[in-house]
Amino acid sequence: MGERANVRVLLLVGSEAEIVADASDADAPERYPAQEIADAVGVPVKELPGTRLTAAVGVGDRLSGWQLV
């Protein structure tokens, strides 16, 4: 299995979720489609802020394969 990162949903901005990695060297938050994340983890979009997840790290450090911690 590939590398996974621990991440947290900071907030919602329109239809996007602002995601930050739980690491001291993490860069600025990145935005991902909120509905995609909500569907993957079975949580309503409005409940995503504050949620801790893991995600697969792909090409260009893009995240996918969202899972609840």
Structural class: mainly beta
Number of helices: 1
- The SSE string, one letter per element, is EEEHEE
Identify low-pLDDT runs. none
What is this structure's SSE topology?
Elements: E1 4-13, E2 16-21, E3 30-33, H1 34-41, E4 52-57, E5 63-68
Antiparallel strand pairs: 1-2, 1-4, 2-3, 4-5
Tell me what the structure shows:
This protein has 69 residues and is mainly beta. It contains 1 helix and 5 strands. The chain has one helix spanning 34-41, and strands at residues 4-13, 16-21, 30-33, 52-57, 63-68. It has a 5-stranded antiparallel β-sheet with strand order 3-2-1-4-5. It starts with a strand and ends with a strand.
In short:
This protein is mainly beta and 69 residues long. It has one helix and five strands.
Which terms would index this structure?
about 70 residues, mainly beta, five-stranded antiparallel beta sheet, globular
